[in-house]
Amino acid sequence: MIFLDKLRAAERQNGSLLCVGLDPEPAKFPIHLKGDAGKIYDFCARIVDATADLAIAFKPQIAYFSAHRAEAQLEQLMEHMRRNAPQVPVILDAKRGDIGSTAEQYAREAFERYGADAVTLSPFMGFDSVEPYLRHHGKGAFLLCRTSNPGGADLQGQRLAGLEGEPFLYEHVARLVQGPWNLNGQLGLVVGATYPAEIERVRALAPTVPLLIPGIGAQGGDAVATVRAGWRADAPIVVSSSRAICYASAGPDFAEAARREAIRTRDSLEKAKL
Description:
Blueprint: H1 3-14, E1 18-22, H2 40-51, E2 57-60, H3 62-66, H4 71-84, E3 91-96, H5 100-113, E4 118-121, H6 131-134, E5 140-146, H7 153-156, H8 169-178, E6 187-191, H9 196-205, E7 211-214, H10 223-230, E8 237-241, H11 243-246, H12 254-272
Helix pairs in contact: 2-4, 2-12, 8-9, 9-10, 10-12
C-alpha cells in the first residue's frame, strides 16, 4: 500500500484528521518517569497505545530521540507502532535537506533503518535533494512550505522577482509539489496551523496533495480555521498536535489523559468539516 492510500485508509477507519506528535522530553515526563531518558520508549508506547484508534498518523520527531542517545528506543518504538497500530502511518519528522549520496543515506535512515512511511524534508536545495527519497516505492515525503514559526516569513514570504507574477517562495514550492516534482504522487506539503490564510492559498495552488499541518494545541493554531482552509474530501490533511496530547497530565494517568485530549482534538477537527 502506498503512503497516500494508507493515509486515506486511516482517515476512514479512525474517523480522524489528527496526527499525534511524539516529542519525548524526559524533563516533562510524568512524575514516576520524570528525567529518565531510558524511559522514552515506555512513555511513547503508552501514548501510541492510548491513541491508535484516534489518529490518522503518528509523527515522532527524530531530534527528541537522538539528543538523548535514544535511537535504539526509536527503532523499538517504530516496531511497536508497526505491530500494534499497523493501520496508522508513521511520519518521521526529520526535516532533512541535502544532495547526492548524503540524501540517499538520509532516505535509507528514514525508510530502511526506521521503517517510516513518510518523512519531512526541506526543499531549499532543490529537486536533487528530494529525488533520492522518491526512489523508495510507496513512501511519502512532506516538503516544508509555509511553516508555523514566526521566522518562516524571513524566506518563505519573500517574492521571487524572476518568475511570472512574482510569487512568494512558499507559493512556488506549492506549485512544484503539485506539479513537476511530484513524479509518483509521493509528495505533500508542510503548512503551519498558525497561518490559515496561507493554508488556504497553498490548498488553492496544490489541490490534490496531502498537507501536514503542525501548530494546533500548544502552538496556538485554530483547529476549525485550519480544517476549513485546508481540508478537501479528495485531499487529506494531517493536523498534528504533540505537547498538548503527550503532556496532558503529569501523573500516572498520563496515557488516559492523552487519550481524552486526543478525542477532544479529533472531534473538534471532525466537526469543522461540516
